[in-house]
Amino acid sequence: MSKTAFIPSVPGTSEDDFDVSAMSKMAGYRRFFGVLKVIRSTDGRVLFPFDGAPELGPYPSKLEAIAAAHVYGEHIVASDLARPEL
Length: 86
What we know:
alpha+beta; four-stranded antiparallel beta sheet; about 30% strand
């Protein structure tokens, strides 16, 4: 038997309930892509990336790719606070 346990979804109540990690990766000459991971810390649910998630880029600089990932992360957090994915 497997030992899987049901973990109930617990919506976040503020921006402090989310862990947002924004980085960049390089793919080819002067092609930078944002790398984003958003986790709701109240229940450990990974909100981004998900299957079919859009690529963030390409951008001409590393800073632009990280900034774009940060902005998209803020959008994911604000959307989940408004309508939690349960």
